Amino acid sequence: MVKSESRDDGADRRKKAMKPKPKWPEWYAELRKYRSRSTGKAVWQLINTLVPYAALWAVMIWMMQKGYSYWITLGLSLIAALLLVRVFILFHDCVHGSLFSQKRANTVFGYLLGLLVFTPFEDWRYSHLQHHATYADLDSRGFGDIWTMTKEEYEAAPKGTRISYRLFRHPLVLLGLGPVFTFLLRFRLPSKMARRKAQVNIIVTNLLIAAIVVSASLLMGF
């Protein structure tokens, strides 16, 4: 029995060895220089994102205190929103541990950047990494992903479910109402199967966000 299993293992190894290696396109090798993490570049990205973002906040607060037109302030807020998208990109890199070489640095800045984008670092890291681990696996749907049905499932579903599915995946919901709900409300509660560390992180994040809102209200009104 042992000899038979050994022969089978040897055959499997030979098959894997004979299997042709994937042929990557010529430009693939050029991407290697972007794989390594650089603390210097990470710090620079944080500076050229957070400094102008904070400066815009300061200018907008000053303008509101001085009684400038609210429409001008809203115009500046659009620029600030673009910088906030960059903040989320850097936050996302911290979640993957790819912004800094040091794990602790990624965690610390992940917590801080998470406050600005209303996203608890520990909870989102858990669900997001689960999403990457199960992406495109139809047997592992329902955690960290967007509601997805196969054609057969959709056709077999009740009419109410099909309508809900189409509404859920409509661009106005998926790219408009969905993000508003997710960032303002959904992330205030732990995701399913969230661990204690993530639950504590959510509570702390919510309290700090509330402190930011109160401070902003005192500076420029609710």
Entry summary:
The chain has 222 residues and is mainly alpha-helical.
Describe the fold and architecture.
There is one protein chain. The protein has about 220 residues and is mostly helical. It has one domain. It has nine helices and no strands. Helix 2 runs antiparallel to helix 3, helix 3 packs antiparallel against helix 4 and helix 5 packs across helix 9. It is globular and about 75 Å long. The model has no long low-confidence stretch (mean pLDDT about 85).
Which terms would index this structure?
222 residues; 9 helices; 0% strand; mainly alpha; globular
Distance between the termini: 76 Å
Q: Kindly estimate the percentage of residues that lie in beta strands according to DSSP.
A: under 5%
Number of domains: 1
Counting DSSP E segments of at least 2 residues, the number of strands comes to: 0
Secondary-structure blueprint:
Layout: H1 2-18, H2 39-65, H3 70-95, H4 103-116, H5 121-134, H6 151-156, H7 159-168, H8 171-184, H9 196-220
Helix pairs in contact: 2-3, 3-4, 5-9
